[in-house]
Each structure stands twice: as C-alpha cells, then as structure tokens.
Amino acid sequence: DFGRSSELAFVVEPSDDIAVQEQPLILYCQVEGIQPITITWRKNGVMIVDSENAFMLANGSLYVSRFQRVRGDGSSDEGEYDCMAQNHYGLVVSRKAKIQAATMSDFHIHPQNAVVEEGGVARFQCQIHGLPEPVILWHKNSMPVNTDNERYTLLPKGVLQITGLRAEDSGIFHCVATNIANVKFSREARLTVSGSHSTVYKDPMILVGPENLTLTVHQTAVLECIATGNPRPIVSWSRLDGRPIGVEGIQVLGTGNLMISDLTVQHSGIYVCAANKPGTRVRRTAQGSLVVQAPAEFVQHPQSISRPVGTTAIFTCVAQGEPPPQITWLRNGQILETSDHIKLKNNNSTLSIYGINQADEAIYQCLAENSAGSTQASARLTVLWADGLPSPPQGVRAETVSATTIQVSWEKPLQNTKEIIGYVLHIRKAADPVEMEYQEAVSKSTFQQLVTDLEPSTSYSFYIKAYTSRGASKASEVTVVSTLGEVPAMPSLFIKVINSTTVQATWEPSIKLGQHEGFKLYYRKVHLSQYTGPVLLASNVTAYNITHLDASVVYEVKLLAYNQHGDGNSTVRFVSLRETVERTVLNPPCDCMKDEQNNKTSTTGIIIGIHIGVTCIIFCILFLMFGYRGRLLMCKNVQEQLSTPQIPRSQRSATGLVLNGATRRDRDDRDLNGKQLDMNELERLFPASPSQEQQEKGIMSAHSLSAPHDKTQISTLSLDEFSIIEEQPDPLPKNSHGSSPAALAPNHGPANEG
Predict the structure, then answer these.
(1) 65 within a domain of the structure (yes/no)
(2) Would you give the DSSP letter of residue 5?
(3) By the 8 A CB rule, do 124 and 224 touch?
(4) Residue 206: inside a domain, yes or no?
(5) Span 536-547, mean pLDDT?
(6) Are both 572 and 544 inside the same structural domain?
(7) Is the Lyase keyword given for this protein (predicted)?
(8) Strand partners, 65
(9) Number of domains present in the structure of the chain
(10) Which of 28, 348, 461, 718 has the fewest CB atoms in 10 Å of its CB?
C-alpha cells in the first residue's frame, strides 16, 4: 500500500488555452492512484457545479458547451481553472490553467503614405492587438505581396520593409490581420518612388532601431534595424555585454533585421545595431533589450516518505525559472499553515514537520509559479503507528533548582510499559523554534533528569517520550518553567595612578558579566574599616576617577556589578600613591613646551655631534700613530755635533718640539728652573749615532712627516746643548741628495701635534 499506486498523482493537467466565442471548450484532467478517486473542478477558486453549460466528462475532463466571454448575467467563462483529485490518502490540486477568449481589436497603427527617391528604403507598419497574436499579411494593389522578392521583408509584428526602391515598387499597400476570432483590414497607403538614384553623399542613419521585447523560451524574437545612407551602410549586430551572439538559431532578415529562433534564457541581453559607412569608422548605433522568461520547472521533486510517530519529516522541492519562481505548499489542497512544529526554510524549498503524529498524515504539494507559468508536484506523508506502543508518560513536572539548572520528573505510561527501553527528554527554549530542540536520553528505570548548563532567567519547555524497539510513544504534555535569575559575574578591574591625589579605575565590558544594571564602586584607606561609597555607575560606564586621596597611605578599591537579583562578587585592587610623590620630587615637572621645542632641535645636534666625535677620534689615532715617530729636535750647534757632512746654519730651519704632550711654555719653565730630564728617556728618544745616510734623511722639515714611509733619525746631543725653540716659518732648502717633494713642501701649519 505504500508504493506509487497508493499515491495520488496527475497524469494530465489542464493547460492554458484561448477559447473561441460560442464554441465548445474542453479542459483535460487525468489522475492515477488507489480508487476510489473523486475529481472536482474549480474556477477562480470556486467549485464548479455541473450545469447545462459546463459539466465533467467520465474521464474527469471539463466540457464547456458554449464558451462566452460575457454572459447575460454578467459572468464570464474566462478565468483560472484547476481540477482536484481525492482518495483515501489525501487530496491534490492541479496547476492553474488560464483560459482567455479569442479577441481582435481595431488597428491602432495604420500604414502611412510615403514618397521615397529611387534606391532608397520604404517602411510600412500595421499594429493590432488580439488573442491569439494575429498574423499580418501585406497586399499591394489588392494582391498579396510577393515574399519571394528579396527586397521585400515582412516582419512578424506587422512591418513591411522595401529596400533598393525602383519605379515598379510604387503602388497602394494595406495589411490584413487574421486570427481565430476575426479578420480585419487596415487603411490603404500609397508609395511613390521619385526621381533617379542620387549620388550625393549621405551619412549613415538608422531609421528604426530594435524595440524592447519580453518573450518566453522557445519563441522567436525579431529585432528590427533599418538604415539609410549613401553609400548604402553595412548593418551589424553585437551584444552590449561583449558576449558573442552565436550562430545557432540566428538569421538576418532583409538587410539588417536580426531573428533569433527557439529562444533560451541565455539570449536575454541588450542588443546593439550599428550602421557603418563602408571603408570608414563612421557609424550610428541603436539598441534594444531582450528579456526571455522561462516558466517554473522542478529541479528536485518532493518524495513520498513514511515516518514513525514523534519523528521529523522533511520534504524538499527545488524549482527554477526566469524570473525565479515562488514556491507555495499545500496540505490536502489547502494552503499549508506554519506552526511550532511545521516550518518552511530556504525560500520555502524545504518543509520540515517536527514531532509528527497521525494528524500530519496527508498529501503535501509544492506549487512553483512565475509570470511565465506554473507547475506542481506532490508527495505523501505516511505516519507509522505500531500496535502495543506505550501510552505517553504521565505527570511531567519541572522544578527550578538554580539559575542554570532545572530538574524534570515524570511517571510511567499507563499502558504497554513492558517493552520500554528508555525515555527521551525533549528540551527547548520556549522562545526558540522547534528545530532548535535538543534531547537527552534517560534509562528506563530513571524517572527524573537534572538538566544543567541552562541560561539564567530563561523559560524552557520539556516533554517526554517512551521508546520501545518498535517505536516511540506519543509525546507527553508539555511543561514550561523558567530558571532563576543570576547575579552578574566579577568585572575585570584595573587601577591607574593619575597624579599624587588621583587614581583612575577602569574595567572592561564583557558578555561574561551577564545581565547587569550597573556597577558599584567602593574605596577606603587600608587601615580603616569604613568604605567610601558605593558610587553607582551606569552599565555603559567603564572608567571612574577617584580624587582627593592621601598620597602617604595605601588604598583599597573594590568594584562589583549588580542587577535585579542582587550584587555580584567584587574585584579588589590595592594602590599606593607614595612612589608617584617620590618621583615627582626627584624629577620636578618640566617645561613641556620648552622641552618639546628643544627636542625638535636636539635631534639634529645629536647627529652632528656624533659625526664630529667620530671624525675627531679617527684623526687623533692617525696623529698619534704618525706623530710619535716623527718628532724632530733642533738643537744648538747641531751642525758641529753631527758626524755627517754639515749643512750651513743658514740653510737649516729650526723645528719646535713637543715632548710627551706638554706645551712649549711648560717645557721652557722647566728649563729655566734647571730641572733635568731623565737620561734614560733621552737615550730612548735619541739612540746612538746613526749612519750618514740616516743622518742626511733626518735633516728635514717637520712637514716631511706627512710622507708615510720617511723615518727621521737624530744624533744624540749633550744636555747642555739641548733646548726647545720656536718653529720657523721658512721652508727647508732642497738637500744635497734631492729629497722628495713631500719633504720639501711648504709649511701649512704648526708642526707641534699636541
């Protein structure tokens, strides 16, 4: 009984149609399923009662003997028809079929007289409304236009184009509109072809561009584009979004009209017609939009299912179309009402039924509908019920234990308790949807459960089911109870010393605090028992300055959050201002504006000072290395004491000497006081008599020390002939052995290297 044969499904559904006045109309409806099946019809949602004019045939189809758009009583046979089928398992409703009367209005656009020069383009248009869409044909001089002539183009919307006009094209034109309702003729228009073909240059110009069209898939679209110019322009088409138009189903009518057959949704877009002057980039453009709609169709149908009592049933129905279809659910032919245990999700694509029972057994239908059409699909829910299942648990009670705990207790079912293998407690916040429910399993010998980790001041609903190996009992009665309120948690407190008499207490807002109305702040000197406070602060305040404090003592600061249930635990901090006072004494307040100005200039000074310092160090090292080796002594009677050939006194220049970094004045003072130099020091400075070559190299200006490879050797002198004299500015003459230019360079500065 649970196979497809037990379901109720449509084999044939009524379809949209256009009926002819005073003619019979048949709407088809065929159903399969378990008999007996009852079929009824509705028009615009109202049941149709068999009458002489409309009655149901034996196969379930509806027969209308004489269709009338308007009857004598003001009623009409036009409208939306659907058929309903019902059997033992439920009821289904077909798609809605839109029935309209065939009509034809008068022409609201007639062809107009035209005078066009030879070689030009002529265009005539007729426009008329009708159901179904009238077919428009053209006549010239009361004869049908020869459509085999490639210069004549007939467009479906009642347009006649004639290109490359000739004298024989002149004549009288009119159009004929035909459909199942009527045949109508337009007014006549005369075409006159004047003169001969002109050779005057004319810029390309688009006479008529494409219109905006809205069509349905599989129809044919014709985008008109007619252009003139001399030379004759070339017409081309493109899409504004740059995508290729393609070639399949694409055809050019006449000299530039674009026809697209068997439309799909992908053909939607903006089409651009361009008239190009041959061999140049001169062009004119016009554009029109094409919207292709697709009626709703199912991607995924709902499937019939069987579920035990108390479980969850889920139906999925996915449809597509353009524009996207709206989905509606029916239960046994009636609009499905959502409730706590019936939910629609994912834009109505998913139907969930929680905690199903016998009353939920029905046929559920998914209707998908958009402006292009509608469709429906159905599925049946079978609720499984085994004999001998336990009755619902009795006496369910819930008692609040704390802010986060509730104890639930119950009693055994009254019937069929032997096969019970356990109980399931269903828990949900009273304000939450059914799908947020969760369960806790309990052994068969336990009749109470402590539910923990709940939220304070929150209402919860509870019910129990007894389970056997063959299924679950029906749900017990639902009980609702609230948890106790809870005081807020401890806030995080931080203390910052502002100055010698002020501290700032700050704390962080946190969801962990829970619901709180505000904060209470206390403070005191640690050696006192009495607090100052409480200072009441709003829940959005996160800082408070405590002023007029004594810098010589330690303070205790306490902060807590409170709500309607009482005060929470407090956070305590200790703070001393003594260190701040001591720092203030050791580091008096600065002139911040002056310091800021100094800081702006000090950076540059520091950089310059570093460069100068490094440079000085480098030069000092160089002078110490080379200056120590190049000290010169000029002594009295040095010419007579040297063993090498003598240089005339007039050619020698005395050179000053600085010993051990002392100044000349210090040295002169020591000579005047008769202070004797250490002989060992003199011997170290002036070794024994060198060779003649070394002596000759030694008679040079102190400026020869600048040559890095020169070594000056001086003969030892007796102390009574030793003296320190001032440096002479005159340069040394060139020695007899041709000293190097570096040795004979003019003096550019003092020789002493102190």
Answers:
(1) yes
(2) G
(3) no
(4) yes
(5) 91
(6) yes
(7) no
(8) none
(9) 5
(10) 718
The predicted model gives 392-415 an average pLDDT of: 92
Q: Are 284 and 277 in contact (CB under 8 A)?
A: no
- Can you give the pLDDT at residue 613? 83
Q: What is the DSSP string of 152-220?
A: EEEETTTEEEE-S--GGG-EEEEEEEE-SS-EEEPPPEEEEEESS---S-EEEEEEE-PPPEEEETT--
Instruction: Supply the pLDDT for residue 627.
Output: 65
Q: What is the pLDDT of residue 657?
A: 32
Q: Given 227, 258, 285, which residue is the final one in a domain? A: 285
Distance of CA 572 to the CA centre of its chain: 45
pLDDT tens for residues 110-141?
Answer: 999 999 988 889 999 999 999 999 999 999 99
What are the tens digits of pLDDT across the range 671-729? 444 434 444 443 444 444 444 443 343 333 333 333 334 433 334 444 444 444 444 44
Q: What's the CA gap between 221 and 268, in Å, rounded?
A: 11
For 410, the domain range is 393-482
The β-bridge relationship of strands 97-101 and 17-19 is: parallel
The string of DSSP codes covering 320-350 is: EEESPPEEEEEETTEEPPP-SSEEEETTTTE
Least confident of 20-34, 116-130, 268-282, 668-682: 668-682
Closest CA to 85 of 21, 151, 31: 31
- Give the residue from 81, 101, 121 where a domain finishes: 101
636 — pLDDT class (breaks 50, 70, 90):
very low
Residue 275 CB coordination number (10 Å): 26
C-alpha–C-alpha distance, residues 312 and 353, integer Å: 6
Provide the token pair at 400: 């609040």
451 and 374 belong to one structural domain: no
Distance separating alpha carbons of residues 668 and 726, to the nearest angstrom: 11
| H-helix or E-strand spanning residue 445 | none
**Residue tagged 């002493």 (tokens):** 752
What is the tens place of the pLDDT at every residue in 142-161? Answer: 999 988 888 999 998 899 99
Within its chain, how far is the Cα of 566 from the centroid?
A: 44
Q: Residue 481 in contact with residue 406, Cβ under 8 Å?
A: yes
DSSP letter assigned to residue 262: S
Whether residue 665 is contained in a domain is answered as no
pLDDT reported for residue 629: 55
Say how many residues make up the chain: 754
Burial letters for 408-430: b for 16+ Cβ neighbours within 10 Å, e otherwise?
bebebbeeeeeebeebbbbbbee
- Copy the structure tokens of residue 315: 């139906």
Round to the nearest angstrom and report the end-to-end CA distance of the chain: 123
Bridge partners, 328 (sequence order): 367
The vertex-491 CA angle with 486 and 497, nearest 5°, equals 160
